[in-house]
Amino acid sequence: MNRMTHDAAARFFAILAQARPDPTTELEYINPYTLLVAVVLSAQATDVSVNKATEPLFKLADSPAKMVALGETRLRDFIKTIGLFRTKAKNVIALSKLLLEKHGGQVPDSREDLEELPGVGRKTANVVLNVAFGHETIAVDTHIFRVANRTGLAPGKDPFEVEQGLEKIVPKHFKRHAHHWLILHGRYVCTARNPQCPACPVRALCLYSEKTTGEGARTPGGGAPKTKAPARPTSSRSRASASPPTRPRAARRARKRAATSRGG
């Protein structure tokens, strides 16, 4: 696939920045610790589902000490609507204990220390470093992986390769918010199915060959999706023919009763 040039990438981010001057995460959090927990819970789950679970949870446990006191069993009850909740509950309790033991109950401002925590990988560490501490990191999730490959911004076979490509092509002054611009663009415009190409502000720079049109989204093969023909309006003739037939035996009985009454 063709790669976007550095000049095009600069214009790409300038346009996204103009559309969303102050992008931010859609996960709700109170402090770096609750952000860390929310990001751990968001793996293979939507931000909406995580926010619904964490709203009551964070009222009771907004620090490592309070989370450990809450316990794994009660934590599971709060997050049971989220996928993989048993594993995530175990990891949250374990990382909370480690924060207390090694970091004085504080979330570390270091990738190496973050990635030592149970349930925390490179993507989670990048999000926490970017949102909580202002680092110019780019966390590659499914949305960013799709946008980077589809547009030609930073094609790659895996998230790490895409991250390295983005590090090279994103202009320095856009790196602080690049993660959020890309994830929001992927979530609401450059969607996995039926991307909103006609409404896309960077469509002129995008190298995607299967752009959708205003007439309907293209299928992966390039053709327009099939649509059902509109139903024909029912004519008076067809409505009449569809009515139930008169029952002759009942009609004869009715005529016989009418003749008897006239004779009497």
What would a concise description of this structure say?
This protein has 264 residues and is mainly α.
The main sheet comes to: none
The amount of beta strand, in percent, is: under 5%
Number of domains: 1
Looking at CATH, the homologous superfamily is Hypothetical protein, domain 2
The structural class is: mainly alpha
CATH architecture verdict: Orthogonal Bundle
Radius of gyration: 30 Å
Write a structural description.
Helix 2 (32-41) packs antiparallel against helix 8 (122-133) and helix 4 crosses helix 6. The model is unreliable at 216-251 and 260-264 (pLDDT under 50). It is elongated and about 55 Å long. Helix content is 56%, strand content 0%. It has a single domain, classed as Hypothetical protein, domain 2 (Endonuclease III, domain 1). The chain has 13 helices and no strands. By secondary structure, it is an all-alpha fold. The protein has helices spanning 6-19, 32-41, 47-60, 64-70, 72-79, 85-103, 111-115, 122-133, 142-151, 159-169, 175-188, 236-242, 248-263.
Keywords:
single chain, 264 residues, mainly alpha, Endonuclease III, domain 1, 13 helices, disordered C terminus
